[in-house]
Amino acid sequence: MNITPLGDRVVVKREEANEKTAGGILLPDTAKNKPQRGKVLSVGPGKMNKKGEHIALDVKVGDTVLFTSWAGDEFKTAGRDEVLLMRVDDILAVVS
Fold first, then answer.
1. 37, 45, 61, 78: which one has the fewest Cβ atoms less than 10 Å from its Cβ?
2. Residue 24 CB partners (closer than 8 Å, separation 6+)
3. Which of 70, 64, 80 is nearest to 12 (CA)?
4. Where are the beta strands (DSSP E) in 1-96?
5. SS3 (DSSP) at 90
6. What pLDDT score was predicted for residue 17?
């Protein structure tokens, strides 16, 4: 399944959660915090202005981004990968 976002939305693959704490304790799945960092897989054309032109988004495919805790909606792709579909406004920063 290929997800093509519309408008000002982006598809992000969340980074994997840490398997253990800094002290070396292994964490069960229920105790792992979901990372608020991921890689942009695809971007929409951008918001449309009053003239009917698309305004380009600040992120591009391949960017590593930080986003809010409750950003987007989770979907599973055909390959069983979980991705987030979110608005660009939910992205806080691009990590370089």
1. 78
2. none
3. 64
4. 9-14, 37-43, 47-48, 54-55, 64-67, 73-76, 82-87, 91-95
5. helix
6. 65
